[in-house]
Amino acid sequence: MRGRRRELSRTAFPAEKLVVDVYAAQALPLPRAAAFYVRCGSEIDPESLSNWFAQQGVRTCLPVVDEPDQPLFFREAAGFLEPDALGLPAPGSCADRLQPDLIFVPLLGFDRTGARLGQGGGYYDRTLSARRASGVPMRAIGLAFAGQEVARIPTDAFDQRLDGVLTEREYLDFKGDR
After folding, report:
1. pLDDT at position 13, please?
2. pLDDT tens, 10-43?
3. Where are the domains of the chain?
4. 50-68: per-residue pLDDT in tens?
5. Residue 161: pLDDT over 60
6. Taking the CB of residue 40, how many other CB atoms lie within 10 A of it?
7. Strands 33-35, 102-105: parallel, antiparallel or unpaired by DSSP?
8. If DSSP states are collapsed to H, E and C, what string results for the chain?
9. Alpha carbon of residue 152 to chain centroid
10. Going by C-beta distance under 8 Å and a sequence separation of 6 or more, which residues neighbour residue 166?
11. With bands split at pLDDT 50, 70 and 90, how would you rate the model's confidence at 8?
C-alpha cells in the first residue's frame, strides 16, 4: 500500500487541488473547526483544502502527539511548527487547543465500508474512539488518492471506521448525514 501511494503521489497531480472542488460541491455544513495533518512522505497534501476551509472562516488545526500510545489533541494551525513527542511537525504550546468537529485523516488504503489502513501507530483510532465516546458530534473523513481504494480492508475491534472518504474524484459518505 505504501508503494501504491508513492506511485499515486507522483502521477496524481493536481489531486490536492481537485479535492477542494469535490468537497465544495458536496454543500456539507461547514464545521466550526477542522483538523488537518502535515503531509508526511507520499500522503495526499491537505494544504489546499486547509486553505479553502480557512477562507470560509473555519478555524483550522493540526494534531499533536503529547505522549506515545495516547489519543491526539489538536492545536490551531498558526505560527511556527515544532516537533511533538514523536518528532512530527505540530503547532507549539502557545497555539490555542481546539476540539475540531471535522477531522481529516491520512491513510494508506480504504474500502467502501469506511475501513481504513493507517500507518500502524493507532493514533487516529485512539483519537476517534475517545472523541466518539465523549458524545461530541464529529465527522472523520479520510483524505486519499482515489487509487488507494481496495476491495476490503481487514479490521478488528480497535479500528475506527471513517464517516467518509474524500478523493480527487469523489466524496464517499458512509454516515449518510450529508
Report:
1. 67
2. 776 688 899 999 999 999 999 999 999 999 888 9
3. 2-101+116-151+163-168
4. 999 999 999 999 999 999 8
5. yes
6. 11
7. parallel
8. CHHHHHHHHHHCCCHHHHHHHHHHHCCCCCCCEEECCCCCCCCCCCHHHHHHHHHCCCEEEEEECCCCCCCCEEEECCCCEEECCCCCEEECCCCCEECCCEEEECCCEECCCCCEECCCCCHHHHHHHHHHHHCCCCEEEEECCHHHECCCCCCCCCCCCCCEEECCCCEEECCCCC
9. 20
10. 19, 22, 23, 49, 104, 141, 142, 143, 144, 172
11. confident
The CATH architecture annotation of domain 2-101+116-151+163-168 reads 3-Layer(aba) Sandwich (3.40)
5-9, 55-59, 89-93: lowest mean pLDDT where? 5-9
Assigned C-alpha cell, 135: 458524545
Residue 178 has pLDDT above 60, yes or no: no
Q: In whole angstroms, what is the distance from residue 84 CA to residue 24 CA?
A: 32
What gap in Å lies between CA 79 and CA 94, rounded to an integer?
9
